[in-house]
Structures are given as structure tokens and as C-alpha cells.
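Risk register update: the risk of archive-format incompatibility is retired. Evidence:
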Amino acid sequence: MAGPTVLTPQALLLMAAAAGAGALAGGYAMLVLPLAAAALLGWLALTPREASPPLKRPRRALLHDRYSRQKVPEDADVVVIGSGMGGLSCAAMLARLGRKVVVLEQHDIAGGGTHTFELKGFKFDSGLHYTVPWSVPIMKLCCLSEDVPPFDLLGEEDDAFDKILVGEGSSPFRVRQGEKHLGELYAKFPDEKDKIDAFIRLSDDMMLAVKKLLLVRLLPAWTRPLAWRLLFSATTIKNIRSSAKEVLGELGMSPELQTLLCGLWIDTGGRPDEASFMMTSSVFRGLAKEGACYPRGSSQVLAERLIPVIERYGGRVLVRAAVDTLIVEDGSCVGVRLQNGDEIFAKQIVSSAGYHNTMQKLLPGEAAEAKCVPKQVPGVKDSYGFVMLNVGLRGDPKKLGVTNANTWYNPVNEGPGGHCDMWSPLDEYFADPFTAKKGGWPMMVTFPSMKDRTWIQEHPDMVSCQVLALAKYEWFEAWKDEPCEKRSAEYNALKDAWRDRLLEQCYKIFPAWESEGVVEVADMSTPLTIEHYLRSSRGGAVGLDQTGKRYADPEVVDILDPVTPVKNLFLTGQDTFLCGVTLAQITGVVTAFKMVGFSQSFKAVAQSVLFLKQ
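Archived output:
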């Protein structure tokens, strides 16, 4: 069972304030106000009875609860499709509000993009590479508990957590916690101070726009036209619709400054000349302002903490439970049919499988037509995928030149006067990576083992590294129908070519890796891998594409609302808001709130402020 519920200082302050107000007012108020406060606190303190303690089993087994019909709880209130952070956060939030929730995951491990995997003893992340501290209060809200995983801030001795390389042989620009690097940015471009100031103003507006978009997502659909007019200026909408290349070009920035300010673009999952300026600028500014961090114990601890909350209220999270179709009767979604033919019925169904997967593959065509549900989001395609090289390094991290900071390599063409242009190498890469010039592959290098303090202590000479490059699904599409583990020699030869090229680029940045015996593992994954294991539509790394139309078009925002036109069918996950683990967690909470209504949502938030289980 969970620990005792305690009054927080905020709850005691509310009671004291009510008593004091009553004393000042005198008469009946002296009695009524404290009683009203006590009644409110009593209502808030009422939580659903826990059905049972979490199942006792090894920690590893928690994420591997294999589906069988006998494990499905009777009279489930909600079925959630997918166990990523959107799905699990939604399920945990609904569970602590009294719903019996069944989460169905097609993979053999729960957690979606936060699960980890091992190769020859080296541990790797499947999706989370860093996040922001906002994950902590969201976890507390979903769990109604202080007992959530700690998140450690990243950074080297000078607090640098991202290092941007502009071309081969360049010195890294060090992005530091608290934006301590801004002084160095101004010093590096003394003749462009006014342009940097303009970028700071515009990016501040974009980060505020993210919060406004969340507010719009929380509002009822009928209020949104007014909200759009009140919350967003014409300039803000224009900049959300525009790409970073367009906005920075309009500011008249030098190509080198543009490259630096777009240096973290891979983290958005979209090209900086296509993705919304809101996304590219928020990545460069937001992590440094909020604090780049990583969960202690690896990204997998998030799912390990949420699943017991679901189980305590009679729910279950089951893997190897691939959903084949949604069951729709009389215009209402009443259940799901699994690929093995089993049918599970519930009062409400939530899909965190992504918009296109849900509407194109799971929702029957006649149901979509009856409710005029678009199968394709107008003007928004699936995002790019990633090729990811998983490298296991043996040796002293200091001698290998690695820390918990990420390295971002951006190839450039040297122009007149030493100007560095990133745009033409970017075009060359996406036209055909293997005909692009040597050193012409943009990539991110990250070290999950260095970010997890527990791993460092237990395995000081084992370094896990992941090298990511954005990739088109079309580059690998010819092999999509072949079995995942038995694809043809041509496909494996292509993977080997990617591996060799990425390693070659890494050796230039980290020359110590070329020593014999350092590289023990070099395993490649492609968008086909993402499509197979995470069921992401066309291997999209971040769901839908990050273009401005997705965020600035009211029609698209309405289409991606958690409440679908099909009665009792809801959406959650990054497609309903923005990409990223923290934002996926938020979507789970938003979807749950939309499902339970205002009073229950208010109660959930108030409980997290006034009461927490120890």
C-alpha cells in the first residue's frame, strides 16, 4: 500500500487563513469559514480506495508483464493503446482518479521511447537523451507522491551540457546551464549584437507561445477562436509558421551565426529550414533556461514508477498485446480487438499510437467516414526518422574524451571571408548522403551511460555512446516488408556503410576511439527499426512533422485535439501537442483531464498541492 497522506504547508496555511478570516469577520463567519475550509479539505483528501498493492516481482519483470487474457482486469474503465510517456502518464492520472485502466503495448517491454536496451552489457536509450526538470512535478501529479525518480542536471565543470561544432576542426561552442554562454555568443559576434538581441526577443516570444498553445489545448473547442485572437499576435503566428532559416535570414544574420543558433536542430526531429522557428529556437534557448537533466537510473525509471500507480487501482500494463482494430458500435468506441483475436471492452479508449496510426490503421474506415475524421492531417506529414549508431566503448572516459555533454556536428561550406554556410551541405545530405562531401553528415553524439550516475559508479570503464543522424524513410523503404531480424544482404550492407561513415566522423572528433580494443559494439538502427519496435508511422522519430502549419493552423490544432469526433475515443502523446518526453507527459495529463471533466481535474491538481504521499 502507499504511504500515509500528509498535510502540506499549503494545506495548513489554508486552514489557518480560514480560521483567521472567520475570527476577523466575527459572528457566523467565525464558524462557517473554518467549516467550509475543513469540508473542502475533506473532499480533496478523499482518494479512491486502492484495489491492491502492486504485484510483487523483480524490477525488470515490471516492464515485461506479458499479455494473457486471464491478466486483463474485469470491468475495465479505460483501455490505453501504447505505453509511451503519453499513454502511461494518462493511465496513471486516470488511475489515481479512480479508473481501472488497462494499458496494451505491442512491444515486449513497456515505456515506449523511454525504455532501454542492452548490447553485450552496454545499456542504451531508445529515445530519451535529456529532458527538463518539469518532468518531476508532472510525475508527482500523476503519482500523488513525493517518491519520484530524481533528475540530475547535466554539464561539465563550466556547466556546458551541449557542444556545437561548426565544420571540421572547429572549437566547440559550449551551451551552458542558465544561459551562461550568452556572453560568449555576443563576444564571438561583436558586429551582430543587435541581431542576437532580436533573436533573444523573438525566441522569448516563441517559448511563451509554447505555454499559450498548451492553454489552448486545455480549453474547450468552442472557446479556441477567441483564444487565438486574444493570445497570439500576427507576428507570433508568422514566426511559428516560418522556419528558422527564414526568420534568421530576415534578421540579416551571418551564415555562421545562423548555423550556431540552429546548431541543436537535430533535437527537434526536423530540418531547420522546414521545422517551425518555435521549435528550433526553443531547443537552443529552452534547455539552457530550464535546466538540461537526465533521470537517475536511466530513462526506464519513469515507466517503472508509473506502472505501480496503475496497478494499485486495479489496472494492468501488458506487453506483446498488439491492437489490430478499434471496435466501434453505433458511432461510439467501445473496445479494441487484438491481433490474436481477443476483444477487450471498456467505457473509454485512449490511443497514444500517433494520429496517423490511429486513424489510418486502427479506426475502421466506415467509422472515420461517418464522423468525417481525416485519415491524414492536412498539410502535415510524418516526421523524419533517425539512423542511430549504438557504440560500446571500453576504457577510461577521461582518456576517451567523453563526458555527459552532447556533441552536435554541423557540416559547413567555407565561403568568402571565412563565412560558414550550413544550408548547402544540408541540402546535399538530404539529396543523397553518400554523394555528399566527406564530413558532410550532420549528427548528434550522446553518452547515456555518462548521464546516469548509477551506471557510472557500477561500470566505470563501460561507456555507452549513441550517434544520431536524421534520415528519410525513403532511403530504407525498399526493405520495409522484409522480416526485421532477417532482412536481405543489401539492407545489411547499407547499414554497414552508415556505420562506417558515422564511425569515421566520430574518430575525427574523438581520436582516442581508434585505439585497438576501445570500440566493442557498433550496432546500427534505421527508421525501419523505429517503425518495427515503436510502431511509429513511417519510422518518424517524433511523430508528426514539426512544421509551422502543425502549430499555427487552427484547423490542424482542432484535428489533433485529445477529444476525437468518435464518442469515447481519445488521443494522447506527442502528436496532440509537441514532441519530447516532458511534453508527452503533459499530453497524458491533458487527455486525462479532458476525459474526467473540470471538477475531477481541479481535485487532482489541488491534491498534489495540498496532499502528497510519502
